[in-house]
Amino acid sequence: MRFLIAAVFLFALHPSLHAEVFSANALVELAYSNNLNLKQTSLMVDAMKADIGAKNMWSDLMLMYSVQYISPADPGKLQHMISVEQMFPLWGKNGALEDAAGMDYLASKLQLEMEKRKIRKLVLSLVLDYSAVIEQAKIETDKLLMLDKLKSILKTEYATGKGMIAGIVDVEIRIAAVQFTLIELSNRMAIIGNTLIDILDLPYMNLVIAPPVLDFNKIGLDPQKHLSIAQTAASNSPEVQIAETQIKKYSDMIALSIAEFYPDLGVGASYMYTPAMQEHMFSVNLSFNLPVFSYGKKQGMTDFYVSKKAEAETMKAAMKDAVMKETERMLLKIKSLTAQVLLLKGQILKLSENNISSMLSAYQVQKAGFSELLSSILMFYQMRTEYIMTERMLFEEVLELEVMTGNRYYEF
Hints:
This protein is α+β, with helices and mostly antiparallel strands. The chain has helices spanning 2-13, 24-34, 36-54, 93-159, 165-200, 226-236, 238-259, 295-364, 370-405; strands spanning 20-22, 61-71, 74-88, 207-209, 264-274, 279-289. A hairpin with a 2-residue loop joins strand 2 (61-71) and strand 3 (74-88).
């Protein structure tokens, strides 16, 4: 039964038994194409781009046609009039409106970039979970084989009167626990697959991932360049850049609200024709549009945008500082996790594995007890699991740092 559970789990992992196998990068690209949140943000970007043209006041050319009776007593006497009128916003009003709309467009593009970074991190985090589950399943399967080997030794000793039934029962309990863990790992894999299907907006399918080969030695980070990396994160952070666009937008709105104190120029022309009298008339007119009684409102808008700009500047400074501090924290954690991975892989795992061989030999010549042998076995597999989990945490921090800086430090 114990081997059947392990075999069923490994059977479920075998890519050739499924129709769809995806690499980590393929899943990221699929998420970029299919994710509904990204699609909505992309549509918002298109709308903001179109809004720039809508703000162009030079296109507000008015064309009018009218017909009227010259004499109500004589319905045949009609007068036709065609007129055109164009308002020319002065003092940079048109440019300020377009620039402000351009800042909204840029902010929407930065929002899309931020969403893409987060989606990439989310997908790759799930891929790392998937990979960790596979590695943990291999560890548990190896542990199952080792415990079964130990059980055979204990049974032989018990049959010859050299051992006790308590040791066999202890090992059987631990074998059952491993079987339970394998079932849990299988369930976790199914949950990861379903979560990815939701993110990718795919129909239900047997989603199988080709686990990436992880090598912490290939992480492209120089621990000596913490300040440079933190500064890059502050410069490339979409949140900081969005705050910068808000500052520029409010500067444009301040300029626009000040320009509203000055008049706009209106230029018009009209042509009138009276068929009954064969009369043609042309006229050209100039006008200035100045809302005299809205000074208080316009001054209020100027003060509002000045305060909003100051608020955005404060927010940008706070965000920049927060991003730099968070980046420095990540770099310190990456440094610590890298040291732990090196220690686990370079020393602890080798020592633990050698300890099993030594304890098994000592046990067979009665120089070590059963509890000591079992502890050495469990310690080795615990250290293997610890290594997998620590490596998983290391790459998770690297992914988070990639979100902050916009740079790639590892190719999955």
